[in-house]
Each structure stands twice: as C-alpha cells, then as structure tokens.
Amino acid sequence: MNRKLKRQFRYFYLRFIRLKATPEQIARGFAIGIFWGMFPLPGIQMLTAIVTAAVLRGSKVAAIAGTWVGNPLTTVPLTALNFHVGQSLLGRSWSDLPIENLQSINGFFQLGGEVIAIYLLGCLITGTLGGLASYFLGIPLVDFIQKRAFKDRKRNRRRNNSRA
b or e along 106-144 (b: 16 or more beta carbons within 10 Å of the residue's beta carbon)? Predict the structure, then answer.
C-alpha cells in the first residue's frame, strides 16, 4: 500500500476511534450507514445516512463510514445479493434477465417495476439485517476500542510526564 494512502487510512481510523460519542451512538450511526449503503442511491447515500443519523441520534461520522459498504468494488455483488434475496422472498426466478440492462441506470429502469420492486425489497431486507448485525456487534466492539484507546492515551501521558 502506498505510504500516503496508509497515512490517510490511519488518520481516518484514529479519527473514528476518537469520536466523542457513546458506543451505542457510534454503533447506531454505523448501522444506519450500512442500511443506506445497501440501496442504489449514488450520490445521496451519505446525505441520507447523515439526516437519518441526526434524527435517530446516531453518530453522523459513523453513518458516513457505514455507507462505504456500497462502493464501486461491492456494487455488483451487493446488487446480485439484493436481487436474489428479493426473488427468494417472493418466490420468483428470472434466469433470463438481459445482463446488458444492468450496465446502466436507464437499462435497469427498462426492466420494469416488478424487477425493481424485487430488487428494492432485497435492499430493504439485507440493509435491515446488516444494520441490526452491525449495531449489536458494534456496541461491544466500539466499547472495547474506546477503552483500549483511553488506556493507551493515559499510559502515554504518564510516560511523557515522567520524562519531563
């Protein structure tokens, strides 16, 4: 990994673990971001997550981070997963979907309302399950990370004070 990218990653990691919020608020914000990250809302996922986090009193920074689950590398697998989940729940199967229609937004809309509704149902289900899982796993994880970071800062302060 390039050195500049490593520095940026470390900066965002440190900023994330030093958020001035409770573990519940951070986990809630992250869960909100995961939820909205499952939906095909290019350009407005983060805005939607920030507004929802503000209303539900979650961490807005964590909500932004959660939306990154839907990124250019994960778009195709998440779309396939969401569509499959929607099909399974409704007992439908389209093995002859024209793949070329999935290469653009206009082509996607030409597939018709039923296909889009199936896909959005899958987004709702995977977003809800992913959000709930990240919330309940996130609370103890954030609590652990915050406590460890607090101990490290305290230890570093003592070390620095003893040198002075």
Answer: eeeeebeeebeebbbbbbbbbbeebbeebbeebbeebee
Domain boundary assignment for the chain: 23-142
User: pLDDT by residue (tens digit) across 31-68?
Assistant: 999 999 999 887 799 999 999 999 999 999 999 999 99
Q: At 27, is the secondary structure helix, strand, or coil?
A: helix
Distance CA 24, CA 29 (A): 8
At 100-138, the pLDDT tens digits run: 555 666 776 677 777 888 889 999 999 999 999 999 999
With bands split at pLDDT 50, 70 and 90, how would you rate the model's confidence at 3? confident
- Is the CB of residue 29 less than 8 Å from the CB of residue 63? yes
Cα-based distances in Å from 148 to 5, 141, 144, 145, 152: 25, 11, 6, 5, 6
Cα 98 vs. chain centroid, distance in angstroms?
A: 29
